[in-house]
Write a structure and sequence with these properties.
Largest sheet: 7 strands, mixed
Helix content: 25-40%
Distance between the termini: 14 Å
Radius of gyration: 16 Å
Mean pLDDT: 92
Strand order of the largest sheet: 5-4-3-6-7-9-8
Number of helices: 6
Number of strands: 9
Low-confidence stretches: none
Oligomer: single chain
């Protein structure tokens, strides 16, 4: 999902979302930056209105909320917090509450595309967010993509992308947005450069410097 030839000119495929809204859903602050930060920055630069959705903030409410706001600004995105005033986990919400929240955003924003967690995750909160997003597709048509499993620690989970997004031009924005989450990395003695290396390894699969992979749940090609 990088570029194509149209009328002899190189066209950014992500520009299909220019002038539309793209929803990106993450269970917690930093999930979106880790999974598809480069893609979100590219979408924003291509003219899409990108709304990052954080379902819950498990701890350090003030710090993590502030970090998420800064990261969204770096990526050129808006941000919504579904449970902004208390620390909680996604699993603390009843299923109908979570589905209702996601449904409400879909009805309000009428997205052209949605990015969310994949089913292959160790974290229950990530799986619950995925299931709520999958349920929302009954409301209207929009493209749906799932990003790779995310964690502050390296995880061994099989993930097989259907498409690869070239983020060579936005890797620095992705890394800057990740580093903003110092409560999850610096204060715990965890390094962030591994995410650059992972993006580089993914990029090598499709012959670019850096890339992010996504599962394609559904996508309309005109």
């Amino acid at each position: 999902m990088s570029a194509a030839q149209a009328d002899g000119k190189r066209v950014d495929i992500l520009s299909k979302y220019a002038g539309t809204t793209v929803l990106a859903v993450g269970a917690h602050p930093d999930d979106l930056e880790l999974g598809i930060g480069g893609t979100l920055a590219r979408l924003s630069r291509a003219g899409a209105r990108v709304v990052m959705v954080v379902v819950s903030i498990p701890s350090d409410l003030r710090s993590r909320r502030s970090e998420a706001l800064q990261a969204a600004k770096i990526l050129g995105c808006e941000i919504r917090f579904l449970t902004p005033n208390k620390c909680s986990r996604v699993e603390d919400l009843k299923t109908h509450q979570l589905v209702g929240m996601i449904d409400g955003l879909v009805r309000e924003l009428k997205p052209a595309a949605m990015f969310t967690h994949c089913l292959a995750n160790l974290h229950l909160d990530h799986k619950l967010a995925y299931e709520a997003c999958m349920a929302s597709q009954r409301l209207r048509y929009f493209d749906i993509f799932c990003y790779s499993p995310t964690s502050c620690h390296a995880v061994n989970i099989a993930f097989y992308p259907h498409a690869y997004i070239d983020i060579s031009d936005t890797i620095e924005a992705k890394m800057q947005a990740i580093r903003v989450h110092s409560s999850q990395f610096d204060s715990r003695g965890l390094k962030t450069e591994g995410y650059r290396e992972a993006s580089n390894q993914t990029g090598k699969i499709v012959g670019v410097d850096y890339a992010e992979g996504v599962e394609v749940v559904r996508m309309k090609l005109n």
